Every structure is written in C-alpha cells, then in structure tokens.
Amino acid sequence: MSAESMPDPGTPGETGTTSPRDRAGRLSRTPRSGRRKALLVAVWTAVGIAVLGGSGVGYLYLKLNGNLKSIDLNSLLGTDRPVDVDNGSQDILVLGSDSRSGGNRKLGGGKDDGTARSDTAMIVHMYEGHRKAAVVSIPRDTLVDRPGCTGTDGTEHPAATGTMFNSAYTTGGASCAVKTVESMTGIRMDHYVEVDFSGFEKLVDELGGVRLTTTEDIDDPDSHLKLAAGEHTLDGAQALGLVRTRHGVGDGSDLGRIQLQQAFVKALADRVADIGVLTSPKKLYDLADTATGAVTTDSDLGSVRNLASFAGGLKDVGSAGMTTVTMPVRSDPADPNRVLVDEDRARRLWEALRADRAVPKSVTEGTAQGDAEGVVGSG
Q1: Domain of 84?
Q2: Taking 80 as the threshold, does the pLDDT of residue 146 lie above it?
C-alpha cells in the first residue's frame, strides 16, 4: 500500500481520507547505530492462550500457569493515579523489553550487562465492545518529565525532567514506565503487558509466520533483514528484523521505524484472527506455551484463567478495526535526535481516548512523521 493510499486516523473501522500527507512536518534526523528494539505486540500474543478455552486443566494448566511472570503494579503505584473511567473501554500499556541476557543477548546485538531496557511502547485503547482499538506508539526518544516512582524492586526514584521516555523503564522497570505514561496522558492503565525479543520471535514462528507486502526493497545488515519488494510470509527472525530496522528503509529515524511497526501490528492482528482455524491440540498448546512464556503482566492478569479471559476479549480486533497513530511530537531544536511532545495535539488525543472517542484526524496533521509510511502493508 502506498503512502498516498494509507487512510488517515479517524473512526476505528472506517476509511479515512486518502489525500497525501503533508510532508513538511517530517524530521530529517541523523541515522545512528546502536540497539534497536523490536515492536513486541504482546497484547495479541496472549490470544494463543484463549484458544485453549476451558481445556487448560491438570498438568497443562499448571505448566502454562508456571510460565507466567507478573508484577503487583497496584501496590507499587499506590493511590496517586488517574481516575479509573468506567465507560466500557480498557487501556493497556504494551512494552517491548530486552534484558540483555539469555536468548536476548544474541538478538539484541549487545553484551550481557545485567540491565533491562524498553525502547518500544504502545498504549492500546480498546473501545467499548472490544471490537475496535486505537494503538498509540510513544517514540522512545521523546523528552519527558518523569514523576517520582517506586521501582519494581521497591527502590524510590526521585522525579526527573527532560529525560528520554524509555529511561523510565531502565530506571525503575514496569512500575516507573506505567507511572510516567499515566502522568503524561492522564489515563489510568488498566493492564500492563511486556514481552521480550526471543519471545516475539518464537511466537511469530508458532503462528506460522506473518504475511505482508513490501513496496520497496529492504536491506539492513544491522537488523539482519534483506527483503525484495513484494509479498512475503515472514518467519520470526525476519519479523524481528523488520520491526527493528531503521537504516534499511526511510529516513533512518525512530519515527520511521514506528511506521513499519504499526503496519506490522495490523498484519499480526490479522494473522491472530486466523488462529481459530488451527485444529491440532499440540499446535494450540505450543502456541499457548510460547505466549505465556514470553509475557510479563500486571498481577491482575497473572494467571492463565485471567489472561485467557482478557485475551478472549481482544481476539476479534483485526486490522480493519484498528487505528494506529504515533503520539504527536515535534523536533527538538537543541538536538535532532530527540523529539518533544506536541502538547496541544497530544492533549486532544488523550481527551478523546479518555472519553472513548475516535482519534481526531487533526491530531496527526502537521506533526513530525518518519519517512517509511506505505512501505509495508498487509499481505
């Protein structure tokens, strides 16, 4: 799909405008080397559990339950949080993590230094009825004010101003990341889902690959991805390379990489919607085993029963019911490798989601964009 034919964000499930985007707001940023984190669309990985339904009993249930890792975010975040709006919608913070240990060391391309990082963040807003969703990507290089927070290990971290968004996770883990997102948006996160590099790759393989089409050749030795323009069924390694690539296509910016990630989210959502055609009990179990081993959740989702129930409410969201946008940002005049929140447009975005309304088209008009839109579409 070309950039000219990509619909602008609007009412989920409806066709937006097809006029060309204004390119004046696009960033010209200096490509740079370093770690590139995968887009880890962990919300949809959990759907693999839902297909087991009530069959997860006995040993299999205990095995899957034992795979799960959870964090008691409610106790860490305390009571100083946005109001929990009861309008039938749900908001989930989805993070991609890289612990630099185990299987992630090879995939991340760095040494095992004992740290954990998250460079990919999405707010998934499930509209009332859970058949449509808005997915908002938060650029990792956005400079934000991080509130004081209690880290996942119980350590107190003082507030900091003008820090990169992804430093919140590095500082205090999931709890500080959630606290920062809630402070930025004024939206209470109902759930938290995190998945790592190796889990993402395994899940795509268990799904049998993800189909998509590239309109340009992609060749990026840094992310180990080489694709000719055309239709592809990506395996796990290729999918990981696609969502990590920055220099293989577009302008080399993180905003361009986000555009590729958002296109992949839609392709993955369509693939997950096909899970129902799988009839092999072993295939279903392997998928659930991979999904539960890949994710870390808030404690409310920390059991197979709860996670399956939650995932069952997401499995009907395909690409047609999904709006993907990037949090409105503008270039930082002091540093071309950083961006600042476009406060007016961001405020309108968060207000719409709090009220369970469609993302206004005006939110992304004139805001900074990457240069990779339309390179990847559903296969």
Answers
A1: 3-9+34-378
A2: yes
